[in-house]
Amino acid sequence: MPSKLTVTNISGGDSFTMVPDHCIVGVDIRLTDVVDDNTAAKLIHHAITVLDSSFPAPRPTTMDIVVSWPPFLLGRDDQPAAALTAGTRAAGIDVEPKVAGPSNIGNLLAAQGIPATAGFGLSYRGLHGIDESVDLSDLPAVQVAYHHAVLSLLGVPL
């Protein structure tokens, strides 16, 4: 998957009567088997160079790395993902596993040796927008899939 710089937050100044003297832009880049932390840093430095040349300011832009989680990739038989995939089949849902990102808590958990998956859910539109919504008609089937997965992980015969 190609590297992608995602802006996660923007802040600057703390009073409505002041012109901000700085701006903080939070970004996220998914680290993968082909995009390591050095490649990600180069991508950010390139974006900074473009920004500074396009919008000159009294001071150059600086970068601080706050946190970095290593990439991880689940195999088809890795739990809990395999149990959830089996649960979707049992519920009659056609789901193809895919990469979740830009990053998620799974990266942090995997770094600690804790198996994780991003899971799946209801069909949606307007993700993280003011018009975000889900299709509740699929809720019973999704519940069956997760129920099946949990029973499987607990060793309950199905």
TrEMBL record:
Family annotation (Gene3D superfamilies): 3.30.70.360, Zn peptidases
Domain Peptidase M20 dimerisation: 3-48
InterPro entries for this protein: Bact_exopeptidase_dim_dom, Peptidase_M20_dimer
Domain of life: Bacteria
Single GO MF descriptor: hydrolase activity
A Pfam family hit: M20_dimer
Protein name: Peptidase dimerization domain-containing protein
Organism whose genome encodes this protein: Nocardia terpenica
